[in-house]
Amino acid sequence: MGDGKGAGLMAGKRETNPAGSTNHFRGDVLRVLGALKVATADQIQRIGAPHLSYRHAGKPTPSKQKQARTASHTGALSDMRGHGLVENSGSTETGDRLRNLTPKGLQAASYELRRPMTEMGSTARGAGSSGASHPMAVNETVIALLRPKPNMAKLAKDSAEVRAAAQAAVDGPRGVGTIASYWTEVSLPATGTWNAPGKGGAQADIVVTAPQDRVPLLFIEVDNCHETAEELADKLEKYVRFFLRKVKDTDGRERPMWRTRWPAPDTWSGDATFPPVLLVFNRIGERNPDRTVPRLMELTRHVWQGDRQKGGHHHYDGRLPIIATGLNQLREHGPAGAVFLRFGRDHKQHLWEAIGNPRREAADARAREEIRIRQEEYQAQVRRAAQEQAAKKAAEREARRPVCAGCGAKFTDERWRAVERVGWGTTQEPRPTLCGDCDRQADADAQRASSAHQHQEHDQAVPEQKAGGTWLSRFRR
Question: Whole-prediction pTM value?
Answer without folding.
Answer: 0.74
